[in-house]
Amino acid sequence: REGQKALWVPLDAQLGMPAGEFSYVLEDWQQKLVVKDPFGEAIESLHDWLGIKVSVRTAEDMNRRMAQYAEPFRADQCPPDPASEGEVLIVSADGKGVPVRRPLEERIRAIPKRSSRGRPRKEKPEKSPRKRLGKGEKRTKKQMAYVGALYTLDPEPRTVDDILDEVRRRKSHRRRPKPKNKRLHVQMTQILEDEVIKGMPRVFAEMAVERQQRDPEYQKTVVCLMDGDPNLWEMQRTWFEDAVCILDLYHVMERLWKAAYVFHSEGSVDAEQFVTRGLRMLLEGKVGYLLRSLRQQMPRGGKAKTLREVITYLENNRQYMRYDEYLAAGYPIGSGVIEGACRYVVKDRMERTGMRWETEGASSMLQLRSLYLNGDWQAFINYRIECEQEALYGQSA
Question: Residue 118: its pLDDT value, please?
Answer without folding.
Answer: 58
